[in-house]
Write a structure and sequence with these properties.
The chain is an alpha/beta fold and 377 residues long. The chain contains 16 helices and twelve strands. It has helices at residues 32-41, 56-66, 80-89, 110-123, 147-152, 158-163, 187-198, 205-215, 220-242, 249-258, 268-278, 282-289, 304-313, 323-334, 338-362, 366-369; strands at 5-11, 26-27, 30-31, 47-52, 69-72, 97-102, 127-132, 135-136, 141-143, 170-174, 315-316, 319-320. A hairpin with a 2-residue loop joins strand 2 (26-27) and strand 3. The two termini are 41 Å apart.
Length: 377
């Protein structure tokens, strides 16, 4: 599947605004360069080349260890486009298309590369440009039929300006990957990336909203319900954190926002879990898969499962209500169906049990903790 594809990683800049050598800065347990190489190796792209310039000699030991091609660019001081040309110049004739990735954007999601590959293989457009909320990100996937145009271009305006000449050949893909926009030009950018690394497997709030509107294309009323459940779940998480409980707020927020992502499917909790696993969000998927039915808690801590489950049972439409009110209508509908009625009673009992534990932990009823934020979008 990945034969004929290559990746060019640009690592030739001075890193002047950063004040340190960006390719070798650590983000989590790996350097930025290692993250960039792993992004492509992990997706079966074996032809990976790194274009170096400033301090290129410092990269050689790691490049040998990683088993990638090293392309020194003696013209790097003339701008990034010379590194693009150096990388393209060294592509083999067997390469059909190549990814172009700056080394200082190290947290691009693996699913983004997979989606770009699939789009190219199914349609073979000239250029595929990933974007998040209309903002172009990395890495674009570019056909080698533009090799001569790139090598002959004078460089003014860089690759972005050149590719504008081929907008008719470009497929713009909106993807749920905010991390494709996160670079590290400055120390502040770097610190933000390091913080993001800790929760890299969780979708950000903006990514969740993107998924609701684009990937799942949910109607306004379901989106409004998801937003309302998320507000309640986060209020619960914040209140519990304030009195000393360890709660993963980011997981609670993401799972609550996406809990009904497959609401129009049969067995929507399991359908949502499967869809989110396929998108590369396994932790959120697990919570979403359990938001309808939950086993009694076995610990004194509060899990994201419990808080999302409880929040969902406190919201009718986009309104904050009591558990009993939330269940009243369903109870009437299931009274004549033994199996459905048993399921209903089990869920109601679980919701009451979690509510009791939360109120005991906080020392006050939920009515005094939660505030209603009725809105439709």
């Amino acid at each position: 599947m990945t034969e004929g594809f290559a990746a060019i990683i640009l690592a030739a800049g001075h890193s002047s605004r950063m004040g340190d050598f960006k390719p070798l800065l650590s983000v989590g347990e790996k350097t930025a360069l290692e993250h960039a190489v792993a992004l492509f190796h992990g997706n079966g792209i074996r032809q990976v080349a790194v274009v170096s310039g400033h301090h290129g000699e410092r990269l050689e030991p790691l490049l040998r260890q990683l088993g990638v091609t090293h392309i020194p660019n003696s013209l790097f001081r003339q701008g990034m486009f010379t590194s693009v040309q150096a990388g393209v110049r060294n592509l083999g004739d067997e390469v059909r298309a190549f990814f172009l990735q700056p080394v200082d954007v190290p947290l691009v999601r693996s699913q983004t590369v997979q989606t770009l590959l699939h789009a190219w293989l199914t349609g073979q457009p000239g250029i595929i440009q990933p974007a998040f909320n209309g903002i172009y990100g990395h890495p674009p996937l570019i056909s080698t039929r533009y090799r001569s145009a790139i090598l002959d271009y004078h460089g003014e305006g860089g690759l972005k300006q050149l590719l504008r000449s081929f907008t008719g050949d470009t497929l713009l893909l909106e993807l749920p990957d905010e991390q494709m926009l996160l670079d590290m030009d400055t120390p502040e950018d770097y610190q933000r990336l390091c913080r993001r690394w800790e929760n890299r497997m969780l979708p950000t709030e903006r990514e969740c909203r993107h998924l609701l509107h684009h990937e799942f294309a949910l109607p306004a009323e379901i989106v409004a319900h998801c937003l309302a459940v998320a507000r309640v779940a986060v209020q619960l998480a914040d209140a519990l954190t304030a009195v000393g409980f360890m709660v993963n707020r980011d997981l609670v927020l993401a799972a609550a926002l996406l809990h009904d992502c497959a609401r129009r499917s049969r067995n929507h909790a399991r359908a949502g879990e499967k869809a989110l696993r396929n998108l590369g969000f396994p932790d959120v998927a697990a919570v979403v898969g359990r938001h309808m039915d939950l086993d009694p808690p076995q610990t004194t801590e509060f899990s994201a499962d419990e808080l999302v489950f409880l929040a969902d049972k406190l919201v009718a439409g986009n309104r904050l209500v009591g558990i009993e009110q939330r269940f009243a209508e369903k109870q009437a509908l299931t009274a004549s169906k033994t199996r459905a009625s048993n399921s209903f009673e089990r869920r109601l009992a679980c919701a009451r049990a979690i509510r009791h534990r939360v109120e005991k932990a906080l020392g006050q009823p939920l009515a005094e903790i939660l505030t209603d934020h009725e809105q439709t979008s």
